[in-house]
Design brief:
The protein has 2 domains: 6-189, Rossmann fold; 221-321, Magnesium chelatase subunit I, C-Terminal domain (Helicase, Ruva Protein, domain 3, Orthogonal Bundle). Helices cover 46% and strands 17% of the residues. The chain is built from 14 helices and 11 strands. The longest helix has 17 residues, at 259-275. 39% of the residues are buried.
Length: 327
């Protein structure tokens, strides 16, 4: 597999965003961070009220990236076999033989729509696929295609009939991205595009091989010790029992972010740097990914509920307190 340069990565970013701009209005930062998570082999959780084009964004991205794509609509009656596949009995030459029928998880890009609408047993089936990049059916493990990426969506306002994601599964998502309502001019453009004509067909501009090359470069990109120190210090500041914890964390946090958060802060920073054509990340890149990496990993306590403090507020406060150290 041929090497790819940071300049070529930034050019790929331009190709992707130009295509997405034909169907997605606004959401520039969401698109930027979603690309960073894909380039860093990270799964992503999109949180937003209905109608903010979460599903459209992921589907459009799959078209631009020329990846195999499957959408799984999560419902209360969805079973693990509906996701990972199952063994069925087939009659051949008068004999019954078991045959494996793959589920929709066998694709490069998976859209797990409304992931919190399915019971924990089914969520756990997806968890193995996300973490191990394989599924086990009938005692046999089967590898998933490479690249393999899961983008899940979640509705934050509807709680009836939902199953909140366990912390262990939330931790598997590199980013949690919160989509806001569009500005008035953006909403006017959305209405024009969707009521006056059909959305255009996007041209595939990035192959699976291109994506794998970028992912390898993200892993290989060098990082300065002071950038790693800053990322680790941010994660440590969220842990109430840690000497470096902020006062806000000691008061309002039950459990802070684990070591996976530090890893994702660096991987996300490296991906952002490459998107800009830089080979090595800076602390500014770590700060940019800190909120989407940390906010779903900081578990607040009962005092936070009484004080109206959310994980997002605590992470933003910590970002203002943790200082970069010089080496």
């Amino acid at each position: 597999m041929n090497d790819i340069s940071p300049k070529e990565v930034s050019e790929l970013r331009d190709h992707i965003t130009q295509e997405l701009d034909q169907v997605i209005v606004g959401q520039k930062q969401i698109v930027r961070l979603l690309l960073a998570s894909l380039f860093a082999r990270g799964h992503c959780l999109l949180v937003g009220v209905p109608g903010l084009a979460k599903t459209l964004l992921v589907r459009a991205l799959s078209e631009v990236l020329n990846l195999s794509f499957k959408r799984i609509q999560f419902t209360p009656d969805l079973m693990p076999g509906d996701i990972i596949g199952s063994e069925i009995l087939q009659e051949r030459e008068g004999r019954l033989e078991s045959e494996y029928k793959p589920g929709p998880v066998f694709a490069n890009l998976i859209l797990a729509d409304e992931i919190n609408r399915t019971p924990p047993k089914t969520q756990a089936a997806l968890l193995e696929a996300m973490q191990e990049h394989k599924v086990t059916v009938g005692g046999q493990s089967r590898a998933l295609p490479d690249p393999f990426l899961v983008v899940a969506t979640q509705n934050p306002i509807e709680q009836e009939g939902t199953y909140p994601l366990p912390e262990a599964q939330l931790d598997r998502f590199m980013f949690s991205l919160y989509l806001n309502y569009p500005a008035k001019d953006e909403e006017m453009e959305i209405v024009k595009r969707t009521t006056l004509r059909e959305l255009p067909t996007l041209k595939p501009s990035v192959s699976a091989e291109d994506l794998l090359r970028v992912q390898q470069l993200v892993l290989a990109a060098p990082v300065s010790d002071h950038v790693i120190d800053y990322a680790v210090s941010l994660a440590a500041a969220t842990r109430p029992g840690n000497p470096e914890a902020s006062q806000l964390a000691r008061d309002y946090v039950e459990w802070g972010a684990g070591p996976r958060a530090s890893q994702y802060l660096i991987l996300g920073a490296k991906a952002l740097a490459l998107l800009e054509g830089r080979i090595s990340p800076e602390t500014a890149d770590v700060r940019e990914v800190a909120l989407p990496v940390l906010q779903h990993r900081v578990i607040t306590n009962y005092r936070a509920t009484g004080a109206g403090k959310k994980s997002r507020d605590i992470v933003q406060s910590i970002l203002g307190q943790v200082k970069e150290k010089s080496y």
